[in-house]
Amino acid sequence: MPSCDGNALVIFSGGQDSTTCLGWALNRFRTVATIGFHYGQRHDVEMQCRQDVLAAIGDVRPGWKAHLGTDTVVEMGLFRELGETALTHDVAIEMGRNGLPSTFVPGRNLMFLTAAAACAYRQGIRHLVLGVCETDFSGYPDCRDDAMKAMQVALNLGMESRFVVHTPLMWLTKAQTWDMARDEGGQDFVELVLERSHTCYKGVRDVRHPWGYGCGTCPACELRRAGWDAYVVGHAVHGEGR
Ligand code: ZN
Asked: Which residues surround ligand 1, an ion (CB under 5 A)?
């Protein structure tokens, strides 16, 4: 495991991906602060889940609690004002004529990263971590590696800084993201991600599946279920020693 070095700020939503990234960062950085955004999500359950994860993650591995820094929540209600999406309004989750799903919130990750960098700047933090992924990505262009690299350049030019944008999940499948959770924090961390992180677009928390809570039918649930199934099959094939 790499030694802890420097401070990091994790863009943390309480979902599977950002929870896994938080564990990854806690193994690598001296202090790991978190930032989350109220952007007019249709369901407040996501914000509650991120608090639950933050309350529990310090106990997963020795030392994690000591590395956990401050949490900041920023209001970004402007996304609701800018237009309707399936994440911010009661509209159907479907594919649009532009080839992007209606859950796409234009500019969201770009603005999250900009706000996170502004927060990190004030706290003297150099490393920014976010759980975007190009491999299994849901068609969101702002999850792509090139977009993140361009943002790193723009932020460093615009803030006269040397931020490093880390995207540890960028080239992983959803099954490999579960593998990462296990590698970083063992079975206790896998259990925490299963039980406390939230993925479902519809905000369902009262139905528990083997892969966690959710409606089971929205695109986010389908992706999470497929990843979990592939992870379980992989362990059945390769055994526990891999
Ligand atoms: Zn769902």
From this structure: 200, 202, 214-215, 218, 221
